[in-house]
Amino acid sequence: QLQLVESGGGLVQTGGSLRLSCAASGGTFSMYTMGWFRQAPGKEREDVAAVYWSGVTVYYADSVKGRFTISRDNAKNMVYLQMNSLRPEDTAVYYCAARPNSGYKFDYWGQGTQVTVSS
Q1: Which of 28, 49, 97, 98 is the most exposed place for a label (fewest CB within 10 A)?
Q2: Mean pLDDT lowest for which of 5-14, 37-46, 56-65?
C-alpha cells in the first residue's frame, strides 16, 4: 500500500514562492505516475500537475503553467511542486496523489498541506 506524506506548505505573500514535497513509501515508486491536486474552500478539487515515472511531465493546469514546476526523484521516492509567482487564488490545500503507470485513476492520496497566499 503506497503511502504519501506532503510537506512544505505555509503562508506566503503574493509573488512569493514555495516548494511542496511529497514522500512516498510502501511501494515501488517508479511504478506510479504522480500528481498534485488542490482544493480551495467551497470549490471542487482541481488537478494541478502530473509527472510520469520517467520524469516527463504529463500535465499542467492552465492556471499554473509557467509558474509551477513538477518534478520527481525516483531514487529518493519524492515528488516536488515548485510554485513561483504565487497568487491569492492559489490558496488551497494541496494534495499529492499516485496512480499506477498503466492506470487512469489516482488511487493513493496524501493528507494534504495548506498553502495560503496573502494579498
Answers
A1: 28
A2: 56-65
